[in-house]
Amino acid sequence: MKHEDSLNPKCLIDLIERKRFGVEYQPIIDCRNNDIFAYEALARFYNADNTTIRPDLVYASLHSSPLSLFQVEYQQKRLQLSYAVNGSNLFVNLDQDSYFSSGVIDENNPFLKLFKECQKAEIIVELIENSEINDAIMSLAMIKNLAKNNILTAIDDVCNPQSMISTSVIQLVKYIKLDKYVLQNQANENFMLLVKSIINYAHSADKHVILEGVETADDLALANKLGIDFVQGFYYKKLFKMVK
């Protein structure tokens, strides 16, 4: 994903050197019984005064330095796995550029080894849907390597107007995460026909659908009406924040 904004170098260097990292675990809820099915580990970053920094701003700033991107992402993943709930399913975001920035693609990739060695949780790697064709190609290579090593994958931001759906990618993942844009545009009948088609395809292909951005009882009711498998959002907020 490409962003126009970036952090100033002094702030970025301080963040990296002081490891001002944190993690938030958001529960993913099973619509059938309201039980917690999994958690998503979300990266969090902080200034010296403990105020938060937007994660997308940090990662956008790091993309110009592949080795720094790798170092920060790898440390974030170690933090996220370290505090995971024992015996849980854990969704972790992984940017394609981060995965390939180590220069190792096969089973010796540092991220892949980290996921395979994790004993606390069952890891599901979540890829970001985007508008870059090259990223889609990289996603395919990454998914195939993860699949060879029995690690499940998910695709994020599906139906976001700024994302691109790669049919090849969507066929390989186990979980399809629908963007909160679905809730915001539920009155658009033509758009909802597409959403329902994606859900029907997912279930026909033995995949699961997660709806993001659920904040109200009405949002949850729509998810149930659509036959969504799992939901995620501030309606079920559960926060664990660790600052290093």
TrEMBL record:
<dbReference type="InterPro" id="IPR001633">
    <property type="entry name" value="EAL_dom"/>
</dbReference>
<dbReference type="InterPro" id="IPR035919">
    <property type="entry name" value="EAL_sf"/>
</dbReference>
<dbReference type="InterPro" id="IPR050706">
    <property type="entry name" value="Cyclic-di-GMP_PDE-like"/>
</dbReference>
<feature type="domain" description="EAL">
    <location>
        <begin position="5"/>
        <end position="244"/>
    </location>
</feature>
<protein>
    <submittedName>
        <fullName>EAL domain-containing protein</fullName>
    </submittedName>
</protein>
<dbReference type="Pfam" id="PF00563">
    <property type="entry name" value="EAL"/>
</dbReference>
